[in-house]
Amino acid sequence: MTTAPLTTSRSRRGFQNSRRHLVFLIPAAAFMAAFAVYPLLQLAWMSVHDVTQATLNVPGWEFVGLENFIRGFTAGESAAAVNRTLVVVAVVTTSGMLLGFVAAIAMRTSGWWSAALLALMVFVWALPPVVNGSVWKFLLAERGLFNTVLGALGLDTLPFLYDPQWALISVASVAAFAVIPFNALVFRAALMAIPPEVFEAAAVDGASKFQEIRFIMMPAVRGTTLVLFVLTVVYGFRSFDYIYVMTFGGPGTATATLPFLGYLQAFNRYDYGLGSATSFLAVVGVLALAGAYAWTIRREERS
Predict the structure, then answer these.
(1) What is the predicted pLDDT for the residue at 119?
(2) φ, ψ for residue 298, nearest 5 deg
(3) I need a labelling partner for 74 at 20 to 30 A (CA). Which of 140, 157, 203, 239 fits?
(4) Contacts by 53-57, CB closer than 8 A, 24 or more apart
(5) 207-236, pLDDT tens digit by residue?
(6) Is 250 helix (H, G, I), strand (E, B) or coil?
(7) What is the three-class DSSP state of 271?
């Protein structure tokens, strides 16, 4: 006889609790709306208008539709920037994932060198990108450490930061170097969750180290790999700080990826409409990757 009233009372309390929880979301929602949603809407609005230094503070910008997007591709800058961005993403993702997993395998063993490697990984990961990029800029300079060693060995020096192809690969490699520690620490956490009994049973069965990696470690980190892969692609896609510090998009625009090209167009050439259109393309790419990341997380939670 009292089942229905009890059910109704519990439903009412559950609804009230959910409303209380929503109250705590209001500050975060307001912060996101003010500092994330509004700037993105403003960026999209500027991308379809003619906005220059002369008209930036003038109300009523001239609507040009997709002209800024078309102008970016017809001039060849946007298409080239997309290609450079894909190169950076490929280098960062491949190196970051592979070397991060290798470093994680090395750090899961016991010993002083494993602890030293772990400390080094945390140190590199904690370095601000400006400091990290400045160090590599000096190392790869024309008379930097790398070229000094090559000269001492009687070899030709290399234009790491002064040749278009070398500069792009150098910046991408430094970005990959910076993401390796994060990937290694996440992979290591997944590997440490494997019960020791599994490795003991594999040793009794005569499994080699390679077989342990192939049949125990790799299946154990499959879910982690999917999540890290998307995060690493996002990291490579939005690379900006290392390019800013090391090459500033040069030589010429050889290292100007899509996000950095938008910065150059808006804040160096003061063509805010074109820069907004280029930056909006980068935002669309990041949003697509963010959606893939959210889908991957939900898939892992269900499995």
Answers:
(1) 87
(2) -65, -35
(3) 239
(4) 53/270, 53/272, 56/272
(5) 888 999 999 999 999 888 988 998 899 899
(6) coil
(7) strand
- The count of other CB atoms within 10 Å of the CB of residue 109 is 9
Q: What local confidence, expressed as pLDDT, does residue 6 receive?
A: 47
* pLDDT tens digit sequence for 37-49: 888 999 999 999 9
Mind giving me the DSSP string for 155-222? PPP--TTTSHHHHHHHHHHHHHHHHHHHHHHHHHHHHHTS-HHHHHHHHHTT--HHHHIIIIIHHHTH
293: nearest Cα among 252, 241, 238: 238
Query: Exposed, middle or buried, 294 (CB in 10 Å: 0-12/13-18/19+)?
Result: exposed
- Which positions of the chain have pLDDT values less than 70? 1-19, 301, 303
Pair of tokens at residue 153? 């060995």
**Peptide bond between residue 251 and the one before it cis (omega within 30 degrees of 0):** yes
Half-sphere exposure of 47 (CA within 13 A, CB side): 20
Q: What tens digit of pLDDT does each residue of 142-155 get?
A: 989 999 999 999 99
Q: Rounded to the nearest 5°, which phi and psi values hold at 204?
A: -65, -35
Backbone angles phi, psi at 136, to 5 degrees: -70, -30
> What are the phi and psi torsion angles at 63 (to 5°)?
-75, 130
- 3-class SS of residue 6: helix
Q: How far is CA 65 from the centre of its chain?
A: 30
